[in-house]
């Protein structure tokens, strides 16, 4: 990352930190930014597997749900958040190993289809295990931390996740993930342990989303199998990186901004209007610019440079 990029990141982070002090404690502004950072963290975590390694998962809501339910159950019996949140992250990570090792025997669309089944099976277990999860009635948490504290928690999680993604992309691990995405067979020929690499990416992704599940539960104070394990949640995690720029560092965060804006503007006006908008947006991106918004930005930048070049030569 060059100095200009570092400076931009520093300015953006400083602005985000200053928001609660400048916005006059506006709950709406903080709530929207909270969602952007929370979705941004989850989308970036999904991108470690789906973007960097090319393993498209439609079942990542399972890790959000495990994190949320672990936090809710532990706090209900008096466990401190300092223990509940790491436990939620660890359980989500362990669950990813349980389902990931057999699932990675499949490739391409077969893996993606398997993750749909895994996600739905996890939701059904949560729905029917009423003694632990409360079933369809869900679980209610007693009290939420102040919104400002929730905001900074989501901001910290997002910033750390994006920083981790940036480091991974330039590391040997990142190169191994890229090799798996491009050609798994060739990667194995070159000595890359493809199953291990994919499992490690899934574990990291699940641990981060497990923490996000904790933050989600503490924000909404109510969770149910449909709200945290639902297929629509998994779809959202797929949509955001694709819209912003699949396999990039900042693309998922850009996608989170678009995703949150559409949900905030359309969800309350017409039933499922946001889902229709997401579908149309995905079609447009796949048809016109598969690299997402960052691809559009790159195309505009190249066109501007090409237009400026003759003027410089003259």
Automatic annotation (TrEMBL):
Membrane topology field: Multi-pass membrane protein
CDD domains found in the cross-reference section: TM_PBP1_LivM_like
Pfam families the record matches: BPD_transp_2
Organism: Vulcanimicrobium alpinum
CC annotations in GO: plasma membrane
Localization, UniProt: Cell membrane
Bilayer-spanning residue ranges: 28-49, 56-75, 81-103, 149-168, 201-223, 235-259, 266-288
Keywords for this protein: Cell membrane, Membrane, Transmembrane, Transmembrane helix
Highest taxon of source: Bacteria
Name by which UniProt lists this protein: Branched-chain amino acid ABC transporter permease
């Amino acid at each position: 990352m060059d100095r200009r990029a570092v400076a931009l990141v520093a300015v953006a982070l400083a602005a985000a930190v200053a928001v609660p002090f400048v916005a006059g404690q506006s709950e709406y502004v903080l709530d929207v930014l909270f969602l952007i950072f929370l979705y941004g963290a989850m989308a970036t975590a999904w991108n470690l597997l789906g973007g960097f390694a090319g393993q498209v998962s439609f079942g990542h809501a399972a890790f959000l749900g495990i994190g949320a339910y672990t936090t809710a159950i532990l706090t209900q019996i008096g466990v401190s958040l300092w223990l509940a949140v790491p436990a939620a992250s660890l359980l989500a990570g362990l669950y990813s190993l349980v389902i990931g090792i057999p699932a990675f025997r499949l490739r391409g669309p077969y893996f993606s289809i398997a993750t749909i089944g895994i996600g739905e099976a996890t939701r059904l277990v949560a729905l029917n295990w009423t003694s632990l999860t409360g079933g369809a009635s869900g679980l209610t948490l007693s009290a939420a931390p102040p919104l400002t504290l929730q905001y900074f928690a989501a901001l910290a999680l997002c910033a750390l996740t994006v920083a981790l993604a940036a480091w991974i992309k330039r590391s040997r691990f990142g190169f191994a993930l890229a090799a798996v995405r491009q050609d798994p067979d060739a990667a194995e020929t070159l000595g890359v342990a493809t199953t291990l690499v994919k499992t490690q990416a899934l574990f990291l992704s699940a641990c981060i989303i497990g923490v996000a599940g904790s933050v989600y539960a503490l924000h909404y104070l109510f969770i149910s199998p449909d709200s945290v394990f639902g297929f629509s949640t998994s779809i959202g995690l797929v949509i955001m990186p694709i819209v912003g720029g699949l396999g990039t560092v900042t693309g998922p965060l850009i996608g989170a901004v678009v995703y949150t804006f559409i949900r905030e503007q359309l969800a309350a006006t017409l039933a499922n209007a946001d889902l229709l908008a997401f579908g149309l947006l995905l079609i447009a991106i796949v048809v016109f610019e598969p690299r997402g918004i960052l691809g559009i930005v790159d195309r505009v930048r190249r066109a501007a440079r090409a237009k400026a070049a003759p003027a410089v030569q003259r």
